[in-house]
Design a protein that fits this description.
heterodimer, A: 231 residues, alpha+beta, paralog of FGE (formylglycine-generating enzyme), four-stranded mixed β-sheet, three-stranded antiparallel β-sheet, 4 helices, 9 strands, 20% helix, B: 406 residues, mainly alpha, Glycosyltransferase, 14 helices, 51% helix, disordered N terminus
Chain lengths: 231, 406
């Protein structure tokens, strides 16, 4: 009897944990569990330092960047060429933020973005540490999900390297412990992540940070990938 | 801030309507003119209409939006025509020995020095500059948010975010100038510039870094970061040229460190993406051609030369069938001939050289941002660049590929 109770308790615990750890993501999103991960780098730009152990709560994140078609559902005045209906939408920060809220989601923090892109092991790219042109969207005529190898991030996201940059909710500020001065630090610039198909390979590293004026993106292609809190 | 810029723009339109102000040079050659005449006339157009205190503008729009010099247009690539004209006049001077040609080359070189001076940071070279205290309208539409007001040269604004291809323009143009045209004083100046410029990149672990200390969008030659094979070639070529010109051992040491420890010599072989075929990029071939032209004439190690030749051969696989659709294509073949000695110029290709052309002057509408956030459509004339054609001509003359009677 005692053994049965022990087994039952164990099974209930496992079921509880399973239920906690793997809630079913909404359509088009993937699950990122709570916990620690390696953030930043020792070899990139000074603003990526110090490399640190960071942690997040669990959350859902979009599998793909938001497309032109999806964004136009939120903003019917949004115009794009018909042949680019499945390309990632390129918008200012306030529009990205508004879209996320409209969709019942929000923009990711830098921490959430980086963890979703690289998992916990500090890898350089979402798929690992090596690079090949077939791993990313090379042709600027297309963006979402059109790379040849179609590598996914450890949690199942696509195009977190290349395609378009992606907005985060964070202002461009130094990481705790970073003492390299940058006049851009503060609440003027937002951080975009992931690089695009118009910059060198190093900009698509998972730890790369880049600052941009939230409402003046000039010709930087910056798009949207939303997260959703888990209640 | 744009309002102030637009007022003179409107005024200039009024002047033009009254025929009081026009482009400095308006005479165009005919397509049927002999090559030497076409080159001479395009040369006048470039020096007259594209001259920005010695820097050669890739794209000019008339009227010039309130400035004395007609320089308003895309400026991100202006180091390309600047280096091409510097090389052109260096080759020309090597043929003519005419002090006037040397003076023009010196003035263009001085503009590259100014591109460094305007940033206020030793060894940091701008993409372009304008003499103005106010942001100009095209800053908002033609490039990233990388324009700065100069603190070292009051009254100037400059464009940052230098890239690997402009890096190549600098060591190619300045290296050619040093080799063929500069007198002792300018040889020293040229060596000093490359020492500061390439030295800064080496000191930053082979990265082009901007005023903010971050690596530029296209400034990655770093052995610790993933980068294109082409960038490995460009870095090796830059170090080879800089060592040759400055005589400083640090550049030779850096060259061999990148080869011995990081295998840049092997990495560079695949600079040319051949497959899939649709990924072939002749724009990148231009940077490879300039790098191979500089490095293969200086390298003496047979093993390394073999690897550079492999790179050239991979390019040739594509170039051998290339159509002469733009002037740099023609130069690829000239470079190939100079480096290999192979007779590749058929009568058809020679005719292609004779048919070289600079640009047409077009009229189009520009969407000019206003201070209130709206846009105003302004109809204007524009010119692209003929610098590559002019460089091709004097390069071809120098190496005996082009006959002066053509």
């Amino acid at each position: 009897m005692k053994s049965c109770l022990t087994l039952l308790t164990f099974l209930i615990h496992i079921l509880y944990l399973t239920g906690q750890e793997k809630p079913t993501p909404p359509e088009g999103m993937v699950y990122v569990p709570a916990g620690e991960f390696i953030m930043g780098s020792t070899y990139g730009d000074p603003d990526e330092r110090p490399q640190q152990i960071a942690s997040t709560k669990a959350y859902f994140i979009d599998k793909y960047e938001v497309s032109n078609t999806e964004f136009a559902k939120f903003d019917p005045t949004f115009k794009f060429p018909p042949e680019k209906k499945n390309n990632a939408a390129v918008v200012t920060w306030s529009k990205a933020d508004a879209y996320a809220k409209w969709a019942g989601k929000r923009l990711p923090t830098e921490k959430e973005w980086e963890k979703a892109a690289r998992g916990i092991d500090g890898r350089v790219f979402p798929w690992g540490d090596t690079y090949d042109n077939t791993y990313v969207v090379w042709d600027q005529k297309e963006t979402r999900g059109t790379s040849i190898a179609k590598p996914a991030s450890p949690y199942g996201c696509y195009d977190m390297a290349g395609s378009v940059w992606e907005w985060t909710s964070d202002w461009y500020k130094p990481y705790p412990g970073n003492e390299v001065p940058m006049e851009q630090y503060g609440e003027t610039y937002k951080v975009m992540r992931g690089g695009s198909n118009f910059n060198n390979h190093s900009f698509i590293r998972t730890s790369q940070r880049y600052y941009v004026l939230p409402e003046k993106i000039h010709v930087y292609p910056v798009g949207i990938r939303c997260v959703k809190d888990i209640n | 801030m744009f309002k102030n810029c637009l007022l003179p723009l409107v005024s200039v339109f009024i002047f033009i309507n009254h025929g009081l102000l026009a482009q400095k040079v308006n005479q165009f050659p005919k397509k049927t003119d002999p090559l030497h005449k076409k080159v001479e006339m395009f040369d006048r157009l470039m020096l007259g209409n594209h001259w920005n205190e010695g820097a050669i503008m890739q794209h000019v729009i008339f009227p010039p939006a309130g400035l004395e010099q007609p320089i308003i247009g895309s400026q991100a690539d202006c180091l390309d025509p600047t280096s091409e004209m510097l090389a052109a006049y260096s080759h020309k001077y090597a043929i003519t020995g005419d002090p006037k040609d040397r003076k023009i080359a010196n003035d263009i070189f001085e503009a590259i020095l100014k591109l460094e001076k305007v940033t206020g940071v030793e060894g940091l070279v701008a993409r372009s500059f304008n003499r103005t205290n106010e942001p100009l309208w095209h800053e908002e539409v033609f490039w990233y948010h990388e324009w700065h007001q100069s603190s070292s040269m009051p009254g100037y604004r400059w464009l940052g975010d230098l890239s690997a291809d402009k890096f190549t323009s600098i060591f190619y143009g300045v290296g050619t100038f040093w080799e063929l045209c500069a007198d002792a004083e300018y040889k020293e100046k040229a060596a000093g510039l490359l020492d500061r410029f390439i030295g800064r990149v080496v000191d930053n672990n082979f990265k082009l870094t901007d005023l903010d200390g971050k690596m530029t969008l296209w400034g990655n030659f770093c052995p610790n970061l993933p980068h294109q094979e082409l960038n490995s070639l460009e870095m090796l070529a830059a170090l080879k040229v800089t060592h040759h010109i400055t005589g400083k051992e640090r550049y030779n040491a850096a060259y061999h460190m990148l080869i011995d420890r990081y295998h840049y010599d092997d990495h560079q072989i695949n600079s040319k993406i051949l497959f899939p075929k649709e990924w072939r990029n002749v724009g990148d071939d231009y940077h490879a051609a300039r790098s191979l032209y500089m490095i293969m004439r200086l390298e003496t190690d047979p093993s390394l030369l073999n690897k550079y030749r492999m790179n050239l051969n991979r390019h040739w696989y594509d170039w051998k069938d290339i159509e002469f659709t733009w002037e740099s294509n023609i130069w690829f073949l000239m470079v190939y001939k100079v480096l290999t000695g192979e007779e590749i110029f058929t009568e058809e290709k020679k005719q292609g050289i004779k048919d070289m052309w600079g640009f047409e002057r077009n009229t189009r509408e520009f969407k000019i941002p206003q201070k209130d956030g709206s846009f105003k459509m302004v109809r204007s004339e524009e010119e692209r660049t003929a610098a590559a054609m002019i460089r091709n001509y004097w390069f071809g003359r120098y190496y005996g590929i082009i006959d002066e009677k053509w």
